[in-house]
Each structure stands twice: as structure tokens, then as C-alpha cells.
Specification:
Helix 2 runs antiparallel to helix 4 (81-91). The two termini are 29 Å apart. The chain has one domain: Alpha-Beta Plaits (2-Layer Sandwich), CATH 3.30.70. Strands 2-3-1-4-5 form a five-stranded antiparallel beta sheet. The longest helix is centred in the N-terminal third of the chain and has 16 residues, at 27-42. Helices cover 44% and strands 31% of the residues. The protein has helices at 3-12, 27-42, 71-78, 81-91, 110-118; strands at residues 14-23, 47-56, 59-68, 98-103, 106-108. The chain has five helices and five strands; from the N terminus they run αβαββααββα. A hairpin with a 2-residue loop joins strand 4 and strand 5 (106-108). The protein is α+β, with helices and mostly antiparallel strands.
Length: 124
Amino acid sequence: MRHGEVSEMIEQRARMTLEWSVPTGEVTVINAALNSLMVKTRQAPGCVGCSLSTQLGNRAGFQYVEEWKTEADLINQLRTSRFSKLAHLMEGATERPHIEFSVGGVTHGIEYAEQVRGQQGNLP
């Protein structure tokens, strides 16, 4: 494989990054939920990697990252019950987490997921 082909493949990958600061009283529940989602994500077709890191202090900071081989793989996951559970978790949060989707070198916010989920059956 030539250098240009490797770069093209990397750029075609899709990533979801969730950053979340939560009060210490919510750490156990959020951590357990994200770990459970991470295990299921790693088994999903097209998953290149999934990680969860935490930083503890007065508040807990979580960073949850999913990386997918292609945008189509990410889109398929955004339409699953697994992502619905994540969305429900975020909606019930004391403070809204920051979520972004990186696709083909372009970064999108939550509107990307809303658009995908609103277009069941149609790939953008």
C-alpha cells in the first residue's frame, strides 16, 4: 500500500467523541452505563476501537470514544438500540455532555445523529 492510500483510508474512518463532566454522586451510574455500552460497541461490525477514560476530582470527567471503519458503519450504529440507550442516558443527565462526530475530516455536533436517526433507511 502506498502512503497516499493509507492516508485516504484513515480519513474515511468515522469517530464519535463524548466528553462529559458529572457530579461525583453520578459517577458510578454513568461509569457502569458507559462500560456496558463499550463492551457491546467493541463487538459491533465495523468497530475499529472504543475507549473510556475517566478523570476524578471535584467532578468526574469522562471521555468515551468510538471509532468506525466507515461512515456507513457509524450510521448503522446511530440507528441501533445501543445508541438509543446512550442518547437516553445523555438526555437524563444533570449537565448535557459534549458530543461530536468526525467524518471525512469534518466535525459535526449532535445534529448529525439527529439527522441520521430522522432518516431511517437513507444514508446521507
